[in-house]
Design goal:
The complex is a heterodimer of chains A (221) and B (612).
Chain A (H helix, E strand, L loop, with lengths): L1 H22 L10 H13 L9 H29 L7 H24 L9 H9 L7 H4 L2 H24 L6 H44 L1
Helix pairs in contact in A: 1-8, 3-4, 4-7, 7-8
Chain B lengths: L1 H26 L16 E3 L1 E2 L5 E2 L11 H4 L6 H4 L21 E5 L4 E5 L17 H7 L17 H10 L6 H5 L7 H9 L6 H5 L3 E4 L18 E4 L10 E3 L7 H8 L1 E3 L14 H4 L4 H4 L23 H5 L26 H5 L2 H5 L9 E5 H4 L16 E8 L5 E7 L3 E6 L2 E4 L2 H12 L14 H11 L6 E5 L2 E5 L5 E4 L7 E4 L25 H4 L1 E4 L10 E4 H4 L4 H10 L3 H38 L1
Antiparallel strand pairs in B: 1-8, 2-3, 4-5, 6-7, 9-10, 10-11, 11-12, 12-18, 13-14, 13-15, 15-16, 16-17, 19-20
Helix pairs in contact in B: 16-17
Classes of the chains: A mainly alpha (221), B alpha+beta (612).
């Protein structure tokens, strides 16, 4: 049952994001020309770099984000991979999963601590939403105004708590079989929700970066 | 013609009148069949009958032993009982169920130890496959044989038929289980069986009479009417004035009765310390063997493992957890407590049997040697007390069973000579091997670890003698299959037939506080834990340079050794993982709460401003 929900969830998320990208395109036109695709890929790669202007807190935050992202990918692949293939998480994959998990937890904590201020809701959010929602702007008010990313950040921070806590609590010698089963389910469902939210968040972050770079490029011209 | 017609008519009418009566008799229940629900104990003050169905009386000139088939069969359906688990091993139609303890045919000279049973358990051989006729079977495994089955099979061999006439059938000894009298002596039953006094076994072992004489020593031409044979003397006061005899019968056999055949002896505990061993925790808390291992009139005893059938809920899971969660609650049967299994991840219940943590002795660095009552004939008293050492049985061995779960097992390494055909082995009867290779095998040599040692050269010589033009001979021992290659040199190969024969070890169940995992993960998940890396000696008569070889339990569990070591090593970091995870969650929680408070403060401020 959970397997089918996962399959459906990931497929639906991918489809929704693709549809969103088609309805609210961003980036360089023409979108599917070879030059444009290469340019996009190079641009995505540059997003991983640390800008010279960044302070130490920003650098740590970005490094933690990138490492956390890598861990998330490992955790999602090892966690959902066997499940989607009809198997279960065990053996070497379980060990890889368990190795990546604490690193991910630390990275998540660092990112939340250092980036919380940036993603706090403030008065400036309302005009941005209105600007995006303006007729003929071609922008999505949710993803391109920055509000979506903020919502995503706080949602992921909140969802990360039960996601990390559930398996650790089950390791304590207080939780019986029923509790273990419940916590395993909590971890499963939180992992699914967190993964879908994280993918969406990643999409929105990339979009925001691309839009910001385009804006900076057009201003410099 | 008229007279004839009238006679025929009369016969037809008589038949018509009698037929329903006969049918009614056939369908009528015997006195002891079924259960009317009254839980009181029926008194067994009964008549005795001999093997021909004749009544036995106190004043009979020539006292005859009583027959359980005739005596108990007056009220109980003997033929139905004979289909019960203890008596149906010979029947190929019977579902063999989970592999269990086989009989083991051992022969010192030919270095043979073969698991024997007619049940369809992998790696075992039916008696006829190892040259045992029913008569041979009973005479080989007599000491703990429950009667019935091979004990009642007729023989086409005239020589055996004559002996059977003298010894009688080895009927089911109902009293071995159901006699609650402290006089019931199974050791004496074994002695009578050793003497081939099969007909006299229940009479002697129940203590109702003294039996003198040895049937096996009587001449083939023995005539019971005229010759002095096996004689019995009834106990004084046994018969009442109506020639009725009282039996102290319990429908639920006493634990001590079961123990005669089902005792297991840990040889690491010396005889002087045997008193320190505890009983199974279920028995210690007042239950009895038959509380779980129940049966109906058919004597198909519930074997206690997860299976289907009327007694299926009488398992560990059935009583302690309840199988069917939708119907009426099943758990808590017989007062079984519900385990919390705190801190034990649920995957353990998929990978392990309940017994893996709760049964047998706590695993040690090296699996110990054990004896079982049936295989080593333990429980015979006095001068008949034999110190049979082989086969060497190792336990507890934590290995993967046919159900795919890891559990505690007893095992021994089969050793036998066989013909090799179509990748299967067909064992030789030990006597056949000895006949062909006596000069090599029947040499008095100093024993090494109870075995008469065997050199590779001797194996090669015996194999050459046993091989035929079409079929090569092989020797299975110590987990290897020895054979001669095309150049006539001895080589060893791996073969499933050489794998150890193992059967589950369900008892003794330890108290929960002695279960594995009570001290958390480190009970099993360390790089040198006995659970995974305990060793089992590979028992063989073949002399190997460097001493005996060992198999690790992880190998028998079908788990990659490197993986298990790395996995167990990872548990060193488990406390750190918990600390890091809690710290990370604490930090995230603090930030979220702090910004929530900040948001709340901002809202409060904003609303306050509006009101102003």
């Amino acid at each position: 049952m959970f397997r089918w929900i996962c399959l459906f969830g990931f497929a639906a998320a991918a489809a929704a994001l693709a549809l969103h990208h088609l309805v609210f395109p961003c980036g360089y036109n023409p979108r599917f020309a070879v030059r444009s695709v290469v340019r996009k890929l190079v641009h995505l790669l540059t997003l991983l770099f640390l800008p010279q202007t960044m302070g130490w807190a920003g650098r740590i935050c970005k490094l933690a984000f990138l490492l956390g992202l890598l861990c998330f990918a490992v955790l999602a692949l090892t966690g959902f991979g066997p499940l989607l293939c009809g198997g279960r998480l065990e053996g070497w994959l379980l060990m890889i999963h368990m190795t990546a998990a604490p690193v991910f937890a630390v990275c998540a904590a660092v990112v939340v601590l250092l980036a919380a201020g940036r993603y706090a809701f403030n008065r400036a959010d309302a005009p941005a939403i209105l600007a995006c929602a303006g007729a003929g702007s071609g922008r999505c008010w949710l993803t391109d105004s920055g509000i979506g990313v903020k919502i995503g950040f706080w949602f992921l921070a909140a969802a990360g708590l039960p996601l990390i806590l559930a398996p650790v609590l089950s390791m304590l010698p207080w939780v019986g079989t029923d509790g273990q089963t419940f916590l395993a389910k909590v971890h499963q469902w939180c992992a699914l929700v967190f993964s879908l939210a994280a993918i969406t968040q990643l999409y929105m972050l990339i979009r925001m970066e691309v839009l910001r770079d385009m804006k900076a490029e057009s201003q410099s011209l | 013609m008229g007279t004839m017609f009238r006679l025929l008519l009369l016969a037809a009418m008589a038949a018509a009148l009698l037929t329903p009566a006969v049918c009614a008799d056939e369908n009528e229940k015997l006195l002891g069949e079924g259960n009317d629900g009254n839980r009181s104990r029926p008194v067994h003050l009964i008549e005795l009958y001999d093997h021909d169905g004749n009544r036995i009386r106190a004043k009979d000139a020539k006292p005859r032993p009583f027959s359980t088939k005739q005596t108990c069969g007056q009220c109980h359906n003997y033929d139905q009982i004979a289909q019960g688990w203890h008596f149906n091993a010979h029947d190929p139609q019977v579902d063999s169920g989970r592999p269990g303890q086989p009989w083991v045919l051992t022969d010192v000279k030919t270095r043979t130890q073969i698991p024997v049973t007619a049940r369809h358990w992998p790696q075992t051989f039916a008696p006829e496959q190892v040259g045992l006729s029913p008569w041979d079977f009973v005479n080989t495994f007599f000491s703990h044989f429950p009667g019935g089955s091979y004990g009642q099979m007729p023989s086409a061999d005239p020589a055996v038929a004559i002996r059977k006439q003298i010894s009688g059938d080895y009927e089911i000894n109902c009293l071995a289980c159901h006699n609650a009298s402290p006089q019931e002596d199974q050791s004496l039953a074994a002695l009578q069986a050793a003497r081939q006094n099969f007909r006299w076994i229940p009479t002697a072992s129940s203590g109702l009479a003294v039996v003198n004489g040895v049937a096996s020593s009587l001449d083939d031409f023995f005539d019971p009417e005229f010759d002095k044979g096996v004689e019995i003397t009834w106990r004084t006061g046994l018969f009442d004035k109506d020639d009725m005899v009282f039996f102290d019968i319990s429908s639920k056999p006493l634990d001590q009765r079961c123990y005669f055949c089902h005792s297991n002896i840990d040889l690491r505990i010396g005889q002087e310390a045997e008193f320190t061993r505890d009983d199974d925790v279920h028995l210690a808390s007042g239950l009895h063997c038959v509380d779980c291992h129940r049966n109906g009139d058919d004597h198909r005893i519930n074997r206690g493992y997860e299976a289907q059938g009327p007694g299926a809920s009488l398992t560990c899971e059935g009583c302690h957890l309840g199988r069917d969660k939708t119907g009426a609650p099943e758990d808590g049967r017989l007062g079984a407590p519900r385990p919390r299994h705190a801190g034990i991840p649920v995957i353990h219940f998929e990978k392990l049997t309940c017994t893996a943590c709760h049964s047998a002795t706590w695993p040690e660095e090296q699996a110990g040697r054990w004896k079982t009552a049936r295989i080593h004939r333990v429980g015979l008293h006095g001068k008949h007390n034999l110190d049979i050492r082989q086969p060497h049985i190792y336990a507890p061995v934590l290995m993967k069973g046919t159900d795919g779960k890891i559990g505690p097992y007893k095992l021994f390494w089969p050793a036998y000579w066989a013909l090799f055909e179509n990748d299967t082995v067909k064992p030789f009867a030990p006597k056949e091997v000895l006949q062909k290779a006596r000069t090599i095998l029947d040499k008095e040599v100093e024993r090494v670890d109870d075995w008469r040692p065997l050199t590779p050269q001797e194996i090669a010589e015996v194999l050459a003698l046993l091989s035929t033009d079409q079929k090569p001979a092989v020797y299975v021992a110590g987990g290897k299959l020895y054979r001669l290659n095309d150049a006539g040199e001895l080589e060893t190969v791996a073969h499933p037939a050489a794998n150890p024969y193992a059967w589950p070890m369900a008892h003794d169940v330890r108290p929960a506080r002695q279960a594995m995992g009570i001290r958390q993960c480190k009970d099993c998940h360390t790089t040198d834990s006995a659970f995974f890396f305990g060793k089992v000696q590979i028992d063989t008569p073949v002399q190997i340079e460097g001493g005996p070889e060992f198999a690790e339990m992880v190998q028998l569990q079908g788990i990659n050794r490197l993986y298990m070591r790395v996995f167990n090593f990872a548990f060193v970091f488990r406390p750190m993982l918990k600390t890091v995870a809690f710290a990370a969650c604490g930090l995230i929680g603090l930030v979220v709460v702090a910004w929530l408070l900040k948001a709340a403060a901002a809202l409060t401020k904003a609303f306050g401003r509006e009101e102003d």
